[in-house]
Amino acid sequence: MLQYETLNEYRALMYARKLKDMFGKNAQLVCREIGDGNLNLVFQITDKLSGTSIIVKQALTYARVVGESWPLTLDRARIESQALIIQHSICPGFVPKVYHYDPIMAVTVMEDLSNYLIMRKGLAARKRYPHFARHLGVYLARTLYLTSDFALPSQVKKKKAAQFTNPEMCKISEDLIFTDPYFNSETNQFNPLAAERIEEIWNNNPLKLEVAKLKAGFLTHAEALIHGDLHTGSIMVSEEGTKVIDPEFSFYGPVGFDIGVVFGNLLLSFVSHGGHTQDAPERNYQAYLLATIEQIWGYFEQTFRELWEKESKERMTIVPGLLDSYLLHVLEDCAGYAGCEMIRRIIGLAHVSDLESIADPNLRAEGEKLALSIGQKLVLERRQIQDIKDVTCRVSEIAGYGTNQ
Amino acid sequence: MLQYETLNEYRALMYARKLKDMFGKNAQLVCREIGDGNLNLVFQITDKLSGTSIIVKQALTYARVVGESWPLTLDRARIESQALIIQHSICPGFVPKVYHYDPIMAVTVMEDLSNYLIMRKGLAARKRYPHFARHLGVYLARTLYLTSDFALPSQVKKKKAAQFTNPEMCKISEDLIFTDPYFNSETNQFNPLAAERIEEIWNNNPLKLEVAKLKAGFLTHAEALIHGDLHTGSIMVSEEGTKVIDPEFSFYGPVGFDIGVVFGNLLLSFVSHGGHTQDAPERNYQAYLLATIEQIWGYFEQTFRELWEKESKERMTIVPGLLDSYLLHVLEDCAGYAGCEMIRRIIGLAHVSDLESIADPNLRAEGEKLALSIGQKLVLERRQIQDIKDVTCRVSEIAGYGTNQ
């Protein structure tokens, strides 16, 4: 193709047919659009003869948000495909394989994951995934450590940081996560039944000060190639496997951000389950979610420590105490960013289905207010946090479970 | 020129003659090499007819250090000229004007400053410059604030950060400032009479841990377009004016670094004056140096606060407390980087003439050990520092002057 044109099912099928080494000569291809069509088009193309299938993903030039058109850079398709390739090389099992990237069409052709389910949906159905915490902890440690200054020669890291300069996508996060929710902004959308609590947040200067510091870290701390949008809709799970998708917000940012966004979304699931009734299965599932957070951190820390021991290129990594001090800094950031993610999903433009699916607005407001309280506490008290239990205990306390769940 | 060739006085003169709009038709040009010829060639070209003069500066492909040839990227000439152009537009009086940049020849043609003296030489001669503290404070505030995320739209800042990716030059600083001096490295060079004190530093794990954290900040905190090598040899002074030159180490780094390097070098001058005798004029000059540090910070802070009030584009800058908290963070970094600069100039590869010029090695060792003690204290106690006086009082204390000088 010589210029960008929007694909449809027919064009995507024709596009796939022309790809080299993808399908056999006699392939009987069928195509199906399977995306939500908000930012990107996602086509699944299957050869009925062999059963082989691939994904053809195309970035759209706009986002359909609140009924309006919002122009978006196509460069995010480059960022996404290049991040996937790096992450796949570092962490092969946990990221889809990229077969082809087309800069003009903003198309990435990659591994089909249709036997996986979006994590957020699994959480809503109260599913438990026995390997998820280990997989995600390892994914986080490997993708973050191995793209950092600890593991890469500083020149290589700086060139990668320049390559992953992602100004337009970062601007979306800067506004929607760290700014708009803290003022009475036009982009905000919230449940009127939580309005009083939200006005308290707008008037809470100590909270806004801490959020401003976390935003400054997001703007300036080029620690590792982060995913940049690691909510539970960017994670696909099955009984056996875990895949992290959609790194179009990827850039060199703070290591604690990805982990914090995962935790924030697990906690949004937590509050959504508390929002229905107080029955035992729900409490059990909430306990499972907190245990999952503890386990993710545990596997992250264990893997990070192993990598530090074996893979460090940076000479100062041999200095006693640096690893402990760095992990504490990551945990502090992680708690802060988890809090920011929770708050913005209640007040800001982009909400989560975990809570939106609660039909009764009063019940939903209960969950939303609990999310705001947990988020606020994590932001304000992140410097007191010494251990992942200091995070989960705070959540239990606010949710009224005492410190032992 | 179609390819790089090293200039000499004749070639530099021919080069200057071809520049458009620089000299009149009948100009009578003379050329003189005035650089130290270590990293760059610096030619002064004067029209004897009009008296007009310019500087033609060419980056060499190597550095002559310890008699060896050390390959160096020519891209630093691009970095230097582009940084000078930005700094001149932000801070016209305090940076030489660039007339022309030639990427193939790695040549920058700029304003001649031959009526200015290198600051380090003025300090050695115990000169006092009545406007220097104000000029430098304003230069630091304007160049740092106006290239930061506070003043620039985040997309613009990110593109500038990518443009000023400067991996080779940063690597030199990472090694020579933050790493080599803390181990028994081959590049180190030091006075054997200070060896015992230096071994204490190599065995001081708490110090090395704090240096490792400061190094991590240098590697990852892309706060502003910093000069990157703001020692007193990069500052030129006259009775009336101050010019900051040679930003070939420029990149997006921590705001506290530039200020810290200036302070570190003023304190290296401080210890050099204490290294001779204990007479009153020397003590007076040392008091002048400490007062200068306090004044630079004072003007920096005042100007930074004014800019924050008037020029902020970042919306979170209206949050109460953010400015105070940010300035405290800068002061903390500044103290730490000042300490690192002092230590590396005693143990590492690149020394300063302030101390090297002391002929008696015993007397020199006294100054060097004092520099190490001050540097170490600033690194280790930087988090207790709340005010610039907390820096200067610590210096006075260690130098045995009590807290009131």
UniProtKB/TrEMBL annotation, chains A, B:
ATP binds at N40, K57, E111, D112, L113, D246, P247, E248. It is an enzyme of class 2 (transferase). Pathway: Amino-acid biosynthesis; L-methionine biosynthesis via salvage pathway; S-methyl-5-thio-alpha-D-ribose 1-phosphate from S-methyl-5'-thioadenosine (hydrolase route): step 2/2. It comes from the Bacteria. It catalyses: 5-(methylsulfanyl)-D-ribose + ATP = 5-(methylsulfanyl)-alpha-D-ribose 1-phosphate + ADP + H(+). InterPro entries: Aminoglycoside_PTrfase, Kinase-like_dom_sf, Methylthioribose_kinase. One of its GO terms (molecular function) is S-methyl-5-thioribose kinase activity. Keywords: Amino-acid biosynthesis, ATP-binding, Kinase, Methionine biosynthesis, Nucleotide-binding, Transferase. It holds the Pfam family APH. Residues 32-263 form the Aminoglycoside phosphotransferase domain. Homodimer. Belongs to the methylthioribose kinase family. PANTHER family: METHYLTHIORIBOSE KINASE (PTHR34273). Catalyzes the phosphorylation of methylthioribose into methylthioribose-1-phosphate. This is Methylthioribose kinase. The gene is mtnK.
